[in-house]
Hints:
By secondary structure, the protein is mainly α. About 85% of the residues lie in helices and about 0% in strands. α2 (about 35-55) packs antiparallel against α7 (about 155-190). It is found in: Endoplasmic reticulum membrane.
Amino acid sequence: MQASTMAAADSTKKEGFWSNWKCQVMELLYWRNLKQSGLVFGSFLLLLFSLTQFSVVSVVAYLALAALSATISFRIYKSVLQAVQKTDEGHPFKAYLEVEMSLSHDQMQKYAENAQYYINSTLKELRRLFLVQDLVDSLKFAVLMWLLTYVGALFNGLTLLIMGEHLFRFHMHLQFKITQVNSVVGKIQEKIPGAKRKAE
């Protein structure tokens, strides 16, 4: 009985975590906080542009150097400031160093199960297509791969990612605006007598 209660509590906790995470993602996608969404998508776009100009190793190295330059400079600045003011505030990143960053066994198991499901589904679908379980589906897949050879000759993968990111951002912004317009129209119809009845 106690074990089932603990399992139910863990399940509720996981659902709450995933629900909160999904809400945060939707907040970013719908640009409800312009500064936060702009920072995330701007950084992602900058990363994609950097990868078109430099290798992955170079981009990772430059990002690491930039982060280290910022943290080391801040650490030295705070140390000098504490020496001048004769204070003992301790390490400037102490709060972040004490944050627990390890994943629990349950979280690792959840991620592993999700990854296993997607990998198995992908492998089964590829086996079905390559071994011609359904001739029509295999021919469709062959045509798609043939078309992708032309797309690959015109664009590289990073260019397609950048274009996809722009299109996705435009789509989400447009969808958010349409939702706002529908909400305004609905409020106007509620205030106009007979408008809702005629619309129906």
